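Re: beginner question about structure tokens

> Can someone show what the tokenized structure looks like for a real chain? I only ever see the sequence side.

Sure, here's an example I had lying around. Input first:
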Amino acid sequence: MTRPSDSSEPPTGENTRTLSDIGEDAIGFGQLELRTVKDCLLRPAAVLQAYMVGGPTGGGDYARPMRLYLTLCGILMLQIFLMGGTSTMLEGLPPEEIDPLLEAAGKSRDAFMADADSWMSLVLVPITAGFYAVFSAPLLRWWDKEDLGWRRSFRATFHFLNVWTIPFVPLGFLAYHPASLGWSMLVMTAFAFAAFLRVGKGRWYESPLAGFGKATLITLFNLISTFFASVPIMAIGVAGGILG
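And the corresponding structure tokens:
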């Protein structure tokens, strides 16, 4: 006769799955990512050193920085949709510019804006993130004590972007509301400045004066990159408004 199993024994297989496991399967955000987020907030310079020495996973201790950044961008994209999109980017166009677009689209202003907004909301975050990386990586490679090469330079860049973005995610929805857009951009700029100082001490700068100067420069570069990013974003929005 077979002895019945002891109900006090821990379950196995799928029954042992934790909330972290489910989160990792659903959105790619599990225990490893949570540890990375925590250490990015508490000890970002040590995480950078781990990435530079231990490879893209920091020796197996951390999430890949680019993958984590894409996850953060996904959260920000969701916030864009929940806040009503990015139609304000085109609503400021003067009548002499918007009227020919409406005529080419053959639709009402509201319909055109709705189609354009759908496309801009979809591409805003990934395009802007790409421009941030392209504008930051050359500076970080130039300033680093080691000859990183481009692969490690972009790894360091995405870590810097993670340290910048993580504290902004809870406030990100404010950047897509006209009433809070101005001061939320100031907060975002301050976070970028602080992220560089926290991540790069000992690698990208030594003295406080050099740190503040370089933090100002890379923050300025990233602000400039948003203007360059707005060109393809608006072009995609216009094309979507006409063809959508």
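Each token stands for a local structural state, so reading them left to right follows the chain. Confidence is low (pLDDT under 50) at residues 1-14.
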